[in-house]
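A quick aside before the break. I want you to see a complete sequence-to-structure record at least once, exactly as it would be stored in a machine-readable document. Don't worry about memorizing anything.
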Amino acid sequence: MSAPLAIVVYEHLVLGNQLGNKLRDMGYRVTMLKEPGKVIEVAGKEKPLIVLVDLDCTVTDAVALIGQLKHTDGTRHLPVLCFTSHDDKKRQEAAVAAGASLVVGDQAILHQFPHLLDQVLQVE
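That is the input. The structure line, written in tokens, reads:
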């Protein structure tokens, strides 16, 4: 059996790489996407366990991207963990309304990553 796959959609190189390394250390295969427009195609084909999205992306509307994931047959079931460096409550609420499972700050995701990942992956 192969390791579970996580897709990380990121714009900020350092944080994206740190998350990728943490996931690999936890036994995940990781697909890093700097081109958010490909996430639906890649997720539909590769069947990840989770998608992590940089809510601060400037090349795309991350909230709309989450909505697309949640309205596409092959990806709507995927948990989405968003991370952000901004304390923009409206944007965070919009991400949750679009279907994000959880939105956390950059520092929280780095320091509490295993716990946050477990929380998002819990089956109800």
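Two observations worth writing down. Residues 5-121 form a domain with the Rossmann fold fold (CATH 3.40.50.2300). The helical segments are 13-25, 39-46, 62-70, 89-98, 106-111, 113-121. We'll return to this after the break.
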